[in-house]
Each structure stands twice: as structure tokens, then as C-alpha cells.
Design goal:
- The chain is α+β, with helices and mostly antiparallel strands.
- It has twelve helices and 16 strands.
- The protein has a six-stranded mixed beta sheet with strand order 8-7-11-12-14-13. Strands 1-2-3-4 form a four-stranded antiparallel beta sheet, with helices on one face. The protein has a two-stranded antiparallel sheet with strand order 5-6.
- β9 and β10 form a beta hairpin.
- α7 runs antiparallel to α8.
- The longest helix is centred in the middle third of the chain and has 15 residues.
- It starts with a strand and ends in a 9-residue tail after the last strand.
Length: 385
């Protein structure tokens, strides 16, 4: 590549000129010229080329329309038209639908079409990176498995499998609203937030990494969703928590998810997840980029079972009691707690849960006798062992 000048604008509106040479580059912002490091130069050059030539928009060698899920193609187009996100196609023939989605070019299927709609058995052989790994661990590390599975398939199939695994594996958490006496039982992590994280992982991951995958790992104290690859276009985990421009690494795949209604707004995914986790009373969402994969981490901020506890009914009761006490500044009597937990929980079970929490120094008592009230131990840490 010979010398070439590009003059975009920075976020502040200043003129920024990038000069690419054979092996070096400079960056001019206003009147200042900065020499790019080799890594930064290669990254910026790679991202510049990405708009024209990338993994997803290359031909899917040997693939034909008959290798794709015709029903899912029709669902995506039907939803896209219904939501006003694409025009009505000239016909309902698969070839016309795929052209409307930008996945068929000059009669050649693109790799994005295989990722979105491909047959699972063929993907497993020819595109093994279309892989989902799910696991449920006992405790807070990877030493002991309670469940460990893998799924191969297209992006929509992997999303469905991941959501099913979360429904089957996550405990139910109880919460209470100020204007309601009855408890509300919901999944520990907001389903809309976890779905957004899964959709982002499938749309933004680096499919050129042959050994890459999507990972879903459930621990006693957190849920982690990982995707192969790194953040690009100058994005950092910190920038994802403020309004930012949406520049998906796989725009064809992301556009299909958007038309299907899985992604609702461009550039708002992380903000939506943050709002949902905050509304559920969970700790702040975490995002980590180690250069090899991006991890979205949800923490539950509640009771963490001991290693011998499989997170069953006892753990859920303890978590429910903590939620109740967290909303009662003056504390609650054991009778109050029993009444609010509702039918199906005995006084003996409430007493055991309170004793267990007290032994862990998560709760303490105030007063004595019939006036004894249970309150959160402000000196303790919920979620600590």
C-alpha cells in the first residue's frame, strides 16, 4: 500500500488525518502529529479494511440455499417487514429473501448466511467456531462441574439453546415492591438483559477465529457470557457504559438480528443491560476485554451457598430473607418474615434460614424476646463466604 490520506473527524469535531505508508503511520489531530506504534497502526489499518473485506461477507464456499433453514429465513423477513425495518421483498422465494437481507451477492451465498441459517451438522464440520459452551459450576471457580455441555448450530439455534440453559439452570430470586405485599418470583438475572448479552456476543464476536465460541458460565455468585475476539473501533469497556456509536463487527449478522426483533436499538445494548440489572437490584454490570475474548459479567449480590450446597431450596430461602431485610431499614420480626414469604414455607424453615445467615454474619438481631427484629449486618458483606 502506498501513502494514503484519510481525514475523518474526532469525537470533539477536530480534523484528524491518518497517513498510512508501507509499514508505519502517523496520526494528525489539529496541528499535532503523533507516530503510531506498530500495533496501533496494524489495528487501524485492519479496521479500515474491515468495511470492505471481512470474514462474514466472503463467499461460503460449497454452500447452497438448500443448506439453510428456510423457515428461519422467512421468520426474519416477516418480522423485519412487520417492524418496518425492511421493505417487502419482490417474492417469498428464498433467493429473493436472502438478497433482501444482503446475504446473497451475484448468486453467491455469503458466510453470514451460513452463520445465521446454516445446517448444524454441516456447520460443526466446516465452521466449528459456530459453537456454544455452557456450564454450571459449584462454588465460585471452575474446579467442580454440575453441568457441562456444547452445542453446534446457527446463531438463532445457539441463542435458543443458551436461553433454555439459563431457564433450566438459574435459581429463582424473590423481590418485593413497595406497593405490593406478595413477593415476586423471577429469574435471578433479568431475562431481557441476559438475552441482550447473548445477542451481542453472537453479533460482535470474531468468527475468523477457528477455535472461537460463545461461552455461558454460571457460578454461585455470578453469570459470565464470553465471546471470542476483542473490542474494535476504539471501543473500551468504559465507553460501552455511555452513549456510543454502534459499529458492529459483523454488520450483516447484526442487521438480521435487528430485523428479527432480537436487537431493538443500535448502540443501546449495554445501556439497556445496565438499566435492567440496576432495576433488579443487582450490582453494576461488568464488561472485560482481555484481548482474546470479551466477557459480560452479572453478579447476584446475594447469598452464596457453601460448596456442599447445590443452590436448592435452602439457598433460595436465605436469598429471599436477605431481599426482605434489605427493604426493611428497621428490620423484621421472624413472624413478619414468615408472613411475607407466604404459604409453602414453615416457621421452622424460616428459623433455620435466619440461623444460617446469622452464622455467616450476614444478619444480626435487635432487641430481645417477642420484639426481636432481624436486620442486615452492615459490617458484613452479602455474597462473601
Amino acid at each position: 500500500m502506498n501513502n494514503e490520506l484519510i481525514t475523518p473527524l474526532t469525537a470533539s469535531g477536530e480534523s484528524e488525518t491518518l497517513e498510512f505508508k508501507e509499514t508505519t503511520g502517523t496520526r494528525r489531530v489539529g496541528n499535532t502529529t503523533l507516530v503510531l506504534s506498530p500495533d496501533e497502526y496494524n489495528r487501524m489499518l485492519f479496521e479500515r479494511m474491515h468495511s470492505e473485506q471481512r470474514w462474514e461477507n466472503q463467499p461460503a464456499a460449497g454452500w447452497s440455499i438448500s443448506d439453510l433453514d428456510d423457515a428461519e429465513i422467512r421468520r426474519v423477513v416477516a418480522e423485519g417487514v412487520r417492524r418496518g425495518r425492511m421493505d417487502e421483498p419482490p417474492s417469498r422465494e428464498p433467493a429473493d429473501l436472502l438478497r433482501g437481507l444482503g446475504l446473497l451477492h451475484d448468486g453467491v451465498l455469503l458466510r453470514a448466511a451460513a452463520v445465521l441459517f446454516g445446517n448444524g451438522e454441516r456447520l460443526e464440520v466446516e465452521m466449528p467456531q459456530c459453537l456454544l459452551r455452557v456450564a454450571r459450576f459449584r462454588g465460585t471457580d471452575k474446579m467442580k462441574f454440575l453441568d457441562n455441555r456444547q452445542f453446534n448450530g446457527n446463531a438463532f439455534t445457539l441463542l435458543a439453546n443458551a436461553e433454555r440453559f439459563l431457564r433450566d439452570s438459574l435459581p429463582i430470586a424473590a423481590r418485593f415492591e413497595d406497593d405490593r405485599f406478595d413477593r415476586i418470583d423471577e429469574p435471578l438475572y433479568p431475562p431481557l438483559a441476559t438475552r441482550e448479552a447473548l445477542a451481542n456476543a453472537l453479533c460482535h464476536r470474531d468468527y475468523s477465529i477457528g477455535g472461537g465460541s460463545i461461552g455461558v458460565a454460571i457460578y454461585d455468585d455470578r453469570l459470565e457470557i464470553t465471546s471470542a475476539g476483542s473490542l474494535h473501533f476504539g471501543l473500551t469497556p468504559e465507553k460501552l457504559f455511555v452513549p456510543h456509536e454502534s459499529r458492529p463487527w459483523n454488520p450483516l449478522i447484526a442487521r438480521a438480528f435487528h430485523r428479527r426483533g432480537i436487537i431493538e436499538e443500535w448502540g443501546h445494548g449495554t445501556l439497556k443491560m445496565t438499566d435492567l440489572t440496576s432495576a433488579a437490584g443487582l450490582p453494576t454490570l461488568e464488561i472485560e476485554d482481555d484481548g482474546w475474548c470479551v466477557t459480560v459479567r452479572f453478579r447476584n449480590g446475594q447469598f452464596v451457598p457453601e460448596s456442599g450446597d447445590r443452590g436448592g431450596r435452602s439457598a433460595n430461602r436465605c436469598a429471599e430473607v436477605l431481599v426482605l431485610l434489605n427493604r426493611a431499614e428497621e428490620g423484621l420480626t421472624r413472624r413478619d418474615i414468615h408472613a411475607r414469604l407466604g404459604t409453602g414455607v414453615s416457621e421452622r424453615q424460616v428459623r433455620r434460614a435466619l440461623e444460617e445467615l446469622r452464622d455467616k454474619r450476614l444478619v444480626v438481631t435487635k432487641n430481645r424476646g417477642p420484639l426481636t427484629r432481624w436486620v442486615l449486618n452492615q459490617g458484613g458483606a452479602i455474597g462473601a463466604r
